[in-house]
Design brief:
Nucleotidyltransferase, domain 5; Methane Monooxygenase Hydroxylase, Chain G, domain 1; 3 domains; seven-stranded mixed β-sheet; 36% helix; globular; binds adenosine-5'-diphosphate; binds ribulose-5-phosphate; EC 2.7.1.47; FGGY_C; FGGY_N; FGGY carbohydrate kinase domain-containing protein
Length: 516
């Protein structure tokens, strides 16, 4: 039973809706996680590049996990509830009932997921308008944003969905509406994925130009005309850890949220335009600061894909189960065995991966790019699987370095990474990010730090803290810090050169095949 020496009776619930599951935590005023629950959620892929979910399923999962973590607690002691969720598009009719986003007419599946790439033709047309709002999404709108998906619905599901629709929500905003009955949208959602400006609001000319003038004529009631600021901040106290960002402005920190995908969040006092990196978004994350969001569309999903698709996967599963380990803990210890005297990262001297199996989100903003592997051999054993897994993890870290370099070239000055999300539980993933970027990686004391972040938002909403900064200072603490192995730098610099060549070559192959 929660209690101990913390201030009695004040708890917060954080709910994190990821791509694969919903998690909830009960957190106290010090940010200590007292109870945790998770629940898998359904996903449908009715055809290639169409990814759908159900808002009813997701809400039911939120209720299940929330009830589990508050069990035994007097509900009056729950002071606040915070949500974070993927930026998937939820569609409801005028009576708030789910509408189908698919040709089958299955209204249960009323969410177009963030990683859905069905609206390719729509996003090309949007980008061809060269409208000024595109400057604020890295110059090129992503197929994963909401405008192309909305246009797809209008063009493809006019009668069954578009004409009946009353409400289009970003998933986090759907959740806060379900929890409170208030349809106000988060500024963060609208600025990051819907082209809303914190300073100027909606731009009528954009919606008219792309053929969605319907929103303008009804004063944006379907996509949100009441907007509230979010409260997140990057203000964790880092004193005493020997970090370069100590005593430096928060703009020297890059937060990387690593789950199914990875999101790279950097802030600045003045707007910085980074080609291929989303933003700058004013006040979308930290009030008064501009946010740039780099990203990799598939990271955890890519690692799972590479490992599960390998011929030695059944053997891996059997051996990990026999040792009561996760497959990744097993693979990490297997790599330690086979590396012998050399650093583990050196096992991939002749195996290189380009990680854009689902297109490149940043910094190339090219959804046509594909994955590449070079250095394959005629072997299918566990060693081979482990080394391919390592090369994949490294490729993702090189992708982060590529994004950081683009951000720095445009004016950011980043010295420290803060990692969270499921992949931050993987020590190999963390060490490779440190070694390959050459920057220290800070992990939160609480492993489920995304949930603590959501609970902090709930804590702020409760009024128990005077500001987000105060709540952050009290509830968020530095845990492990992983420093780069600087002696390996030369090796990773060479691998990075190969990494950049891979995409150059891929573009050459495409040009050859197009007969240019
Ligand atoms: N302990 C762990 N060790 C290694 N990988 C992990 C661990 N926990 C989660 N992951 C990986 O993290 C990814 C999912 O992260 P998560 O934050 O749960 O995703 P999402 O928010 O997208 O649902 C998956 O690829 C999973 O394999
Ligand atoms: O684009 C996004 C955020 O800007 C997606 O919502 C996010 O990448 C998905 O999150 P996760 O990988 O944790 O499921």
């Amino acid at each position: 039973m929660p209690g101990g020496d913390q201030e009695p009776g004040r708890y917060y619930v954080g709910v994190d809706v990821g791509t694969g599951s919903v998690r909830a935590a009960l957190v106290d005023q010090r940010g200590t996680l007292l109870a945790f629950a998770d629940q898998a959620i359904n996903k449908w892929e009715p055809q290639f590049n169409h990814h759908e979910q159900s808002s009813e399923d997701i809400w039911a999962a939120c209720c299940i996990v929330t009830k589990k973590v508050v069990q035994g607690i007097n509900l009056n002691q729950i002071r606040g509830l915070g949500f974070d969720a993927t930026c998937s598009l939820v569609v409801l009719d005028k009576q708030f009932r789910p509408l189908p986003v698919n040709h089958e007419g299955d209204s249960h599946r009323n969410i177009i997921m963030w990683l859905d790439h069905r609206a390719v033709s729509q996003v090309h047309r949007i980008n061809n308008t060269k409208h000024s709002v595109l400057q604020y999404v890295g110059g090129v709108m992503s197929v994963e944003m909401q405008a192309p998906k909305l246009l797809w619905l209008k063009e493809n599901l006019r009668e069954t969905c578009w004409d009946k629709a009353g409400h289009f929500f970003d998933l986090p905003d759907f959740l806060s509406w379900k929890a409170t009955g208030v349809t106000a949208r988060s500024l963060c959602s609208l600025v990051c994925k819907w082209t809303y400006s914190a300073e100027k609001g909606w731009d009528d000319s954009f919606w008219k130009m792309i053929g969605l003038e319907d929103f303008v004529s009804d004063n944006y009631s379907k996509i949100g005309n009441q907007v509230l600021p979010p409260g997140a901040s990057l203000g964790t106290d880092v004193r005493g850890h020997g970090l370069a960002c100590e005593g430096q402005p928060v703009t020297s920190r890059l937060a990387v949220i690593c789950g199914t995908s990875s999101c790279h969040m950097g802030i600045s006092k003045d707007p910085i335009f980074v080609p291929g990196v989303w933003g700058p978004y004013f006040s979308a994350m930290v009030p008064g600061f501009w946010l740039n969001e780099g990203g990799q569309s598939v990271t955890g999903k890519l690692i799972d894909h590479m490992v599960q698709g390998h011929a030695a996967f059944p053997e891996l599963q059997a051996k990990a189960t026999a040792r009561c380990q996760s497959i990744y803990a097993y693979l990490n210890s297997h790599l330690d065995l086979i590396k012998k005297a050399q650093p583990v990262g050196f096992l991939t001297v002749d195996l290189h991966v380009w990680p854009d199996f689902h297109g490149n989100r940043s910094p190339l903003a090219d959804l046509t790019l594909k994955g590449m592997v070079t250095g394959l051999k005629l072997s299918q054993d566990l060693d081979d699987l482990a080394i391919l897994y390592l090369a994949t993890v490294q490729a993702i870290a090189f992708g982060t370095r590529f994004i950081i370099e683009a951000m720095e070239a445009a004016g950011h000055s980043i010295s420290t990474l803060f990692l969270c999300g499921g992949l931050s539980k993987n020590p190999l993933f963390v060490q490779m990010h440190a070694d390959i970027t050459g920057m220290p990686v800070v992990l939160s004391q609480e492993v489920e730090s995304v949930l603590v972040g959501a609970a902090i938002l709930g804590a702020c909403a409760s009024g128990d803290f005077t500001s987000v900064q105060e709540a952050m200072a009290r509830m968020s603490k530095v845990g492990r810090v992983v420093f780069p192995r600087l002696e390996d730098k030369r090796y990773y610099d060479k691998k990075y050169q190969v990494f950049l060549k891979l995409v150059e070559h891929q573009k050459e192959y495409t040009a050859i095949m197009k007969g240019v």
